[in-house]
Fold this sequence. Notes:
3 strands; mainly alpha; globular; three-stranded antiparallel beta sheet; 4 helices; single chain; Arc Repressor Mutant, subunit A
Amino acid sequence: MKRDKHLPLxxxxxxxxxxxxxxxxxxxxxxxxxxxxxxxVRMAAGTLYGAIENLLKLGFIQPVASEDGRRxxxxxxxxxxxxxxxxxxxxxxxxxxANDQLA
Length: 103
């Protein structure tokens, strides 16, 4: 199996994509990332917006219409969902291999 050049995702990118399963604006993304990671990942606004720019360029997320014109809202794309699932499968394989060796 050929590995995607975008894998592995960084922990931050992984959680941002996961947070965007439901569309969200920047501050909500930061809150969701912290919640999903159990407080392990906390992002500054600059880190988030740099990551958002990269994810937009890669086509992993896209802006979506919002009723609040003051906030930009983003959602994961099909391509983003595929890369997220691929990284999840990669991590599952690693966990299974470790469990097998440690058993």
